[in-house]
Amino acid sequence: MHTIRSDASGAAGKKPLFAGEIRGWSSWARVFQDIKLFRPLVQEICRLHNLPFQEPEHLTPGTNAVFAVGDMVFKIYAPAEADFDQSADCDTELFALRRCHSLGVSVPTVIASGTLQDRYAFRYLVQSRCAGKAFREIWPMTDPCETALSVMESTPAEFFTVESTPAEISAMESTSAKVDFGRNLRRLLAPVNTPCETFNSIDVIHDPERAARWEAFPADFRADRLRTIAALCETVWQPGTYVFVHGDLNEDNILLQGDTISILDFGDACLAPVEYEYALTATELFRLDKAFLRGFFPEYYQGSAPRPMDESHPLDALADLITRGILIHDFGGDVLRQRFGLCENLHSVTDLRTFIRSRL
After folding, report:
1. Which of 70, 73, 106, 331 makes the best surface tag, with the fewest CB within 10 Å?
2. Is the predicted pLDDT of residue 116 greater than 90, yes or no?
C-alpha cells in the first residue's frame, strides 16, 4: 500500500477534490453515500492507477463510502476527522482478502489500495466485483417453514408423488436447497476458520466498547453474561484456540452464482473462538431456520429425531455453542433485539439458551 497525494489538494488556489465537510461521525453519516461528493475522488483514484472510469453507482450502504464503478468496487474509508478512523478496517480487509484468496475461497480480488491525501486523508480499496445474487435476494428471511420440515422428516420417500401439490413440492425444494446451502457454506468456511497470525488489535472478550450493545438488556442478564464469559475464559476459550473469523456473515455479504459462494466485506474480521462465527451465521444469516441449520451443523442434526429435551441430546450442545458465540459477538445484542425481539424478557443466560434451544 502506498500514499498518493492529489495534485489538487495542495496547489495554491485550487480547491480540494472532496467538497464536503467532515467533523464527527454524524457528518460522515450524512455524506458517505453522496455520489456527487465522492465522484472526483473516484476519478482521481482511477487516474492514479490507470483504471477505466465509469459513473459510480450505489451499492448496499454500510459504514464506508462504497460504490460500483463498472466491474469494480471502490471502498473509501472514513477519515480520522470522522472521529472513527477506519484505517484499521482497511488493513484488516486487505489481510483477509489476500488470505482467503490464497485458500481458494471466492472473494473479491484486490486491484488497488492506498491513501489519497486531499482535504482529508482517505484510505481506499479497489476490488473486483463478484458476480451473483445476494443471499437476501434468494431467501428473504422469514420464520422457518415448519410445515415443509415436518413433511420432509415424516415422509421423504413419498413426498414427490402425483398427490403432492405444487405448493408442497415448492416447499420441499426450497428446504432441500437451504440444507444444501448450509452444508456448502460450512465446507467453504472450514479452511477459513483456522488459526493464523495476529492481524489486528480486536479483543472480542475484553474490549469494553463491546459491552455497550448490551446496555439495553436487564441488569441481571448483563451481570450473568459477564459471569458466564469469565467462566468460559477459564474452561473453554484457552489461549491458542482462536481462529480467523469473518465476523459479519449477513445476507448482504454472501453472493451465490451457480454452485459458487462468494464472501464480501471483511472489515469485521478478527481472531476469535469459532463459535463467534457460527453463532452469528445461525442467528443473523439463517435466523435459526432449521433447514439451513441442518446443513450447516450436520454433526448435531444427523440421527436426531424430535424428542423431549435432555442434556444428552445433540441439539443441547448446539444451543450451548450458539449461546456462547452470541454472548461475545460485537453484534450479539443487536441480533437478539432486532431479529428475535429479545431484550427485557431475558434475565439470565439460561433464558437465552432456552430460547435458542426451542428453535433448533
Report:
1. 70
2. yes
The values of phi and psi at residue 227, to 5°, are: -65, -40
* Phi and psi at residue 18, to the nearest 5°: -90, 115
- Of 128, 152, 168, the domain-final residue: 128
Helix, strand or coil, per DSSP, at residue 112: strand
| Averaged pLDDT, 319-336 | 96
Query: Average pLDDT of the chain?
Result: 87
- HSE-up of residue 74 (Cα within 13 Å, Cβ side): 32
At residue 149, the pLDDT reads: 38
**SS3 for 188-251, per residue?**
HHCCCCCCCCCCCCCCCCCCHHHHHHHCCCCHHHHHHHHHHHHHHHHHCCCCCCCEEECCCCCC
Which of 316, 242, 315 minimizes the C-alpha distance to 276? 242
How many angstroms separate the Cα of 6 from the Cα of each of 34, 55, 86, 111? 20, 20, 20, 19
Strand partners for 67: 58, 74
Residue 108 and residue 161 in one domain: no
Give the per-residue pLDDT at 158.
34
Average pLDDT over every residue of 294-299: 96
CATH number at residue 303: 3.90.1200
Asked if residues 19 and 44 have their Cβ atoms less than 8 Å apart, the reply is no
CA gap 40, 17 in Å, rounded:
6
E strand or H helix at 75, and its extent? strand 72-76
Instruction: Tell me the mean pLDDT in the region 331-338.
Output: 95
- Tell me the pLDDT tens digit for each residue of 124-165: 999 999 999 999 999 986 543 333 333 334 333 333 334 555
Q: What are phi and psi of 40, to 5 degrees?
A: -60, -35
Residue 9 predicted with pLDDT over 60 = no
